[in-house]
Design brief:
Blueprint (H helix, E strand, L loop, with lengths): L1 H135 L1
């Protein structure tokens, strides 16, 4: 029986040493559990306010995006209208050029021919005066 008594004492000492090592761990686990409980309580208090703020921010962002889209659409329509007006001006300019260019060129050509005719006339008239002056001398 002595062996059983010694074995029982050794087992008791081993359990005592094991408990001595587990006590700080158990104390640390209790402190950690208390901290988790406090953190959870703080989250329960602050989380609804944070979620409400996030909902407000999300609503505001949606309104901003909606307004931005409308403004872009409006600008797109305005740009399209301006492009249409510019196209109309270009078309008008081409038509005007086609209608005015030919008559102007014909008038310039006629004036140029008339100027040459006048030059030739004066050249011929001036030559006759010189020729008749040469005959009188």
């Amino acid at each position: 029986m002595e062996t059983i008594g010694i074995a029982a004492i050794l087992i008791a000492i081993a359990l005592l040493i094991l408990v001595a090592f587990l006590v700080p761990t158990i104390v640390q686990l209790r402190q950690t559990a208390k901290q988790v409980a406090q953190t959870t309580a703080n989250l329960d208090k602050t989380l609804p306010g944070i979620m409400s703020n996030l909902e407000d921010i999300s609503t505001n962002m949606n309104a901003i995006l909606h307004t931005g889209r409308k403004q872009v659409e409006s600008m797109s329509e305005a740009v399209s209208d301006v492009k249409g007006m510019i196209d109309d001006v270009v078309t008008f300019e081409k038509r005007l050029k086609n209608r005015v260019e030919m008559p102007v060129m014909q008038t310039v050509s006629t004036l140029n021919a008339a100027a040459k005719a006048v030059q030739v006339f004066f050249a011929v008239m001036g030559g006759k005066d010189n020729h008749s002056n040469n005959n009188h001398r």
